[in-house]
Design a protein that fits this description.
- The complex is a heterodimer of chains A (395) and B (338).
- Chain A contains 13 helices and 18 strands.
- In chain A, α2 runs antiparallel to α3, α10 packs across α11 and α11 runs parallel beside α12.
- In chain A, the strands form five sheets. In chain A, strands 7, 8, 9, 10, 11 and 12 form a six-stranded antiparallel beta sheet that branches.
- Chain A is an alpha+beta fold.
- In chain B, β10, α7 and β11 form a beta-alpha-beta unit.
- In chain B, α9 runs parallel beside α10.
- In chain B, the strands form two sheets. Chain B has a seven-stranded mixed beta sheet, sandwiched between helices. A seven-stranded mixed beta sheet of chain B has the order 9-8-11-10-12-13-14, with helices on both faces.
- Classes of the chains: A alpha+beta (395), B alpha/beta (338).
- The interface between A and B is large, with 69 and 71 residues.
């Protein structure tokens, strides 16, 4: 599950990871009040005003501004709240900004130069262990750092039997080239960051930039936090952080029916049991000259109710010119699914696009007879190739 | 954003004990040779007894035996002819279920029945514990069907299984079947035929699709291993491919992968260097968008290296017969074996 920067920082703070003082705001008035609170607590005179959307590249899109007074905070808040922010991760349609984060400015002058680093914690799928990945090259896209200067990216793997050890945190701090107070701060930061990752059941932490202030404080200037969906049952407080405004409305509705749906840009909708087969079905639609309009896994129980919900969700997309239903009946009986298709079809009334139903496995022949006898404008197929050929004819 | 392909490292040969041979070339000293000979003999005996992972003498227990999933699939396995010797449900020890004894602990079940294989239908919050319990009781093969186990739990399980004699298949998988011998999992038994094609796959129904195509080609299957769709799984594509390469019954291998991770590439490089049998490959998700999880927790394109396209290219370069259409898996295998 993705969460906002301000929510991610709340989680970090709970685990003792240092972050700039900040408050979330939904109106310019709240933003100004937040700035005043920050000024009283820290004496800060500069503030960051940051759009809260689930996408990176906010700064380039105009969603992050520095304010030198509460008046400027108001100006920026008015400009950013309600804007449609377009970044390289939002797609051309952009995302509406509903919340902003007001933070103390951290680029203040002092005894040393401020520095920006990069740090993330994630799973190394190859070894089945978590790693801390870090670099002296902070504040920029880590993919381009990896492409241009791969030697500047370091990795520290954590042994799950003992967790992060002091020598590992020291190694990270040495490799980042910090010394004195900043060194001590960095050791503490790395240790608490890793413990936060494990403790919150995160699937990704990305701190970019990881910031050293001019007075040698280390803090997470930005935080991208993803939580492992499978572990949310242990953290009801994180489940409450879900922001459905950030999700596709059709996907949200599909979720209510326990359907695993992802919207795509094509012209052939599909409804499949099983994730692997669903991806393979999308692939075969493309090979037949169409473009998949969605990923939809109806799971192990494809019945009339789920099939009907699936139809309705797919048909919301006016670009859909045909629907391919692909069910491999194992435990699920194909004749029952076929009956479900017929019932759903009748219940919806008129489905304006051709439907191809491919049912294979348990009772596939009976299912084909059922579909063919229904008199509905439904094309039935048994082999995957047959289904592909029918898609080709229709698009 | 950070991408998973930036993460280095390879799991190497996994945690299984089938590679006694490889030690031979690096350890010439006599006293080590002696132990190698012993382990070779042992693995020979194992191979004689085993097809791949399973056979009709495997003694299977069901963890989560009395639950609805456990009950349904235990009955299906019994009907298939699998030697299900009992099950475990904490607190229901001493009862009987499906005419078989129920035990409170796996340890009890192993002591009383001599079970060597376990299949897990325990809900996600308790499933990692169930795997550890089976391993601690000395179960040789643990098949975990459960979908939705937190990744952090699996990091710990993986660590615990390291250097133990337990092979884990899954989680989030359909299980393992050796047609005509035993079925330990949730796959529909009737689509399988005893035969010569070994199948390894991260998917459920897509595996059934491949099985069905192979059966219709008249080839049948030796063993099908559904390794699971999670980011951390016990038996990797490479582990499964090695087992099938060593299996006398297997003449050709079908390797079905999907987007995300580097397991197919790891297996492909090993096949290039050590493969002795033809391999047909398919990767699902050629049309999957970047950064979205396609149903399976592990099916997500991070960077350039874990796209279907990149994997298919590596597989082709390593001499694997890659099919672009999932409808061609069975016919390609038949063509290659001709």
């Amino acid at each position: 599950m993705n969460i906002h920067e301000y929510q991610g920082k709340e989680i970090l703070k709970q685990f003792g990871v240092s972050v700039p003082l900040g408050f979330v705001a939904e109106t310019p008035e709240e933003a100004v009040a937040a700035a005043q609170k920050i000024h009283e607590a820290t004496g800060a005179d500069t503030f960051a005003v940051k759009a809260q959307i689930h996408a990176g590249g906010r700064g380039k899109g105009g969603g992050v501004k520095i304010a030198k007074s509460p008046g400027e905070v108001r100006e920026h808040a008015e400009a950013i709240l309600g804007m449609t922010l377009v970044t390289h991760q939002t797609g051309p349609e952009g995302k509406l900004v509903r919340k902003i984060l007001i933070e103390q400015g951290i680029y203040y002058p002092g005894e040393s130069e401020p520095e920006e680093f990069y740090m993330s914690v994630l799973l190394n799928r190859g070894s089945g262990r978590n790693i801390i990945m870090y670099s002296t090259e902070g504040g920029m896209d880590i993919e381009s750092v990896a492409a241009k200067t791969p030697l500047l990216i370091f990795r520290e793997e954590i042994d799950p039997a003992v967790g992060i050890q002091p020598f590992q945190a020291r190694k990270v701090a040495f490799n980042l080239g910090v010394s004195g107070d900043a060194f001590k701060q960095m050791v503490k930061f790395v240790t608490s960051l890793y413990n936060a990752y494990e403790g919150s059941d995160a699937s990704l932490f990305e701190i970019n930039p990881l910031f050293k202030t001019s007075d040698n404080l280390i803090m997470a200037a930005d935080a991208k936090v993803n939580i492992d969906d499978n572990a949310l049952y242990r953290h009801p407080e994180y489940s409450a952080m879900r922001d459905i405004h950030e999700e596709d409305p059709t996907e949200v509705e599909a979720g209510k029916f326990n359907l695993n749906f992802i919207k795509l840009d094509g012209n052939v909708g599909c409804m499949v049991n099983g994730a692997g087969l669903a991806m393979a079905t999308m692939d075969i639609i493309k090979l037949s000259g169409g473009q998949p309009a969605n990923f939809l896994d109806v799971g192990g129980t494809a019945n009339a109710e789920t099939v009907e919900a699936g139809f309705r969700i797919i048909l919301k997309d006016e670009h859909v010119k045909a629907i391919l239903i692909n069910i491999f009946g194992g435990i699920v009986r194909c004749d029952r699914v076929a009956q479900g298709v017929v019932d759903a079809y009748r219940s919806i009334g008129n489905i304006p696009v051709p439907v191809i139903v491919r049912l294979q496995g348990t009772n596939a022949e009976e299912a084909k007879v059922l579909i063919d006898a229904s008199g509905l404008a439904v094309h039935s197929a048994i082999s995957l190739q047959e289904a592909a050929n029918k898609v080709k004819e229709l698009v | 954003m950070v991408q998973h392909h930036l993460v280095d490292g390879c799991r190497g040969c996994g945690n299984m004990n089938f590679d006694g041979m490889e030690q031979l070339s690096v350890t010439p000293e006599f006293f080590i040779l002696k132990s190698v000979v012993r382990s070779l003999l042992l693995s020979f005996q194992k191979n004689k007894r085993m097809s791949v992972l399973l056979n009709k003498d495997s003694k299977v227990i069901v963890q989560g035996f009395t639950g609805s999933e456990g009950t349904f699939h235990a009955q299906q396995m019994i009907d298939y002819g699998t030697n299900v010797v009992g099950g475990v449900t904490p607190g229901k020890g001493g009862q009987h279920h499906l005419d078989r004894p129920v035990f409170n602990t796996v340890e009890d079940a192993v002591r009383e029945t001599g079970a060597d294989t376990s299949v897990i239908f325990v809900p996600p919050p308790f499933a990692a514990d169930a795997i550890l319990e089976a391993a601690a009781a000395g179960i040789r093969l643990v098949v975990c069907i459960t979908e939705g186990i937190p990744t952090n739990d699996m990091v710990k399980v993986q660590e615990y299984l390291h250097n133990r004699d337990t092979t884990l298949v899954g989680p989030n998988c359909p299980g393992v079947i050796t047609p005509g011998e035993a079925k330990v999992g949730i796959m529909p038994g009737f689509i399988h035929e005893k035969g010569v094609v070994g199948i390894v796959s991260r998917s459920g129904t897509l595996t059934y699709e491949a099985v069905d195509q192979v059966t219709k080609q008249g080839l049948g299957q030796s063993t099908c291993i559904g390794i699971g769709g999670d980011p951390i799984i016990g038996t990797t594509t490479l582990d499964a491919v090695k087992l099938l390469m060593q299996d006398a019954q297997t003449e050709g291998i079908i390797m079905i992968g999907e987007i995300g991770g580097s397991m197919e590439a790891d297996a492909a490089y090993w096949i290039r260097d050590h493969g002795t049998k033809p391999v047909v490959g398919f990767i699902a998700g050629q049309t999957a968008p970047r950064g979205r999880r396609m149903g399976h927790a592990g099916a997500i394109v991070g960077g350039k290296a874990d796209t279907a396209e990149a994997k298919m290219k590596i597989m082709e370069e390593c001499g694997i017969y890659v099919v672009i259409s999932p409808a061609d898996i069975g016919s390609k295998m038949a063509e290659v074996l001709k």
